[in-house]
Amino acid sequence: MSDELPVTGTAGPVVTTSQEPTPVAGSVTPAVKVLDAEALQALVAELEKRLSNKSQEADRLHKRVTAIEDAEKTEAQKLKERAEKAEREAEVLRQSILRQEIAAKVGLPAVFANRVLGVTPEEMEADAKVLLAGLPKPAAPKVGATNPTDGRPQAETDAQRRNRLGLR
Questions:
Q1: How far apart are CA 149 and CA 121, in angstroms?
Q2: What is the DSSP annotation of 139-153?
């Protein structure tokens, strides 16, 4: 390896096989430097370090440009952005209120109002009805023919109390 010469005009070192190229008459053969495994690993590590440094520099410059652009915004642009944000938030609130109103209209429990989907009130109402149909129905009260109070004790009247206590 004593006849290794650096290659000029290339982006970096070139690795070649152990075969020497045969020179063509009247041409100039460039010298090629052969690298061993350790030198190649060192070169890769150096290139990775350079790439990492360039990436960090690009991130830093991007943040700086963004900060400069934000500083250059006019007051009108800032007010416009705030107004657009407020409009988006207001629309979200309108949709939420509409969902709650539609849920109440069809008899859907309020806890399920945020599950109502749709863009238009008609779509939301249809979805609320589907949700309501999917909920379990409450059991019918068991009322006997002789007990119209649904199993609850009936309140005692004053006359019944006096009679029971013997106070007529």
A1: 42
A2: PPP---SS-TTTTSP
Answer positive or negative: Cα dihedral of 115, 121, 123, 127. Answer: positive
Q: Where are the domains of the chain?
A: 34-72, 85-135
CA separation, residue 98 to residues 4, 38, 114, 135, 146 (Å): 81, 70, 10, 21, 46
What's the CA gap between 150 and 64, in Å, rounded? 75
Q: What is the Cα–Cα distance from 156 to 19, expressed in whole angstroms?
A: 116
Per-residue pLDDT tens for 60-70? 999 999 888 87
d(CA 88, CA 92): 6
